[in-house]
Amino acid sequence: TLHKLGTLDRHFIGLSATPFSKWPGKFWKDLVVGATTRELIEKGYLCDYDVYGPQPADLSAVKTVAGDYHQGQLAQAVNRKQIVGDVVKTWLSLGENRQTICFAVDIAHSKRIVEEFTAYGVPAAHIDAYADSEDRREALRLFRSGAVKVISSVDILTKGFDHPEASCLIMARPTKSLTVYIQQAGRVLRTSEGKDKAIILDPGQTTEFHGFPCDPLPSFLCDGKRKESVSKPKERKPKACKKCD
Fold it and tell me: What is the pTM of this model?
């Protein structure tokens, strides 16, 4: 249908928050960047953020499959008592008791994080696609009301979840996917009354891998085959301070 319509004397416009994904170049020819993340922050449409990269897990033995970490091996690397405990202790130290969204590697990892938060007396809830829809709605209602401080899932809140009051993100799921990283970081960048900055806790070194959420993003449309024609100098990635993370 798209190819037939394309023969007409018309322009077709596609809108995407992640135009650097692999498929847009199959259907569109040109990319117009309406505004960068940094511009949106400076104009007050998004809030600024601080990133902390505490106690990274050792991912050297985790293989890459289809452009991202092997989920099973990644779960084994991060779903360990010490690593999960460090995630919670870091939130207690740096999270400022904020409304927090957490992304985990798999369901077992998410549940373990919630158990650890609960053990420290922090109201937390886990949601996944296999839970009863009414239970999920109730968990989200409690989170929006503030009765639940931390809501954790694997991917169910990555896209489309809008709760501007959430101002802390735990990226307990390391990812090599730039799309996933930008989508998850965006969950806490919405502006809200009294919210001057968001806090991103990144124990998986994802920021060190991709750069900050407001760093320049790929500016060409990929069809899954061709690569960006203009060579660019390698960008310097962030490094965690050894004293304060």
Answer: 0.84
CB-based burial, 200-232: b 16+ in 10 Å, e otherwise: bbbbbbbbbbbbebbeebeebbbeeeeeeeeee
Least trusted range by pLDDT, from 1-15, 18-32, 183-197: 1-15
b (16+ CB within 10 A) / e for 17-56: ebbbbeebbeebeebeeeeebeebbeeeebbebebbbbeb
Other beta carbons less than 10 A from residue 101's beta carbon = 23
Cα 89 to its chain centre, rounded Å, is 20
Do the Cβ atoms of 168 and 100 come closer than 8 Å?
Answer: yes
DSSP code for 99: -
Which residues sit opposite 51 in a β-bridge?
200
9 CB contacts (<8 Å, ≥6 apart)? none
Q: Is the Cβ–Cβ distance between 79 and 152 less than 8 Å?
A: no
pLDDT digits (tens, 9 = 90+) for 95-133: 999 999 999 999 999 999 999 999 999 999 999 999 899
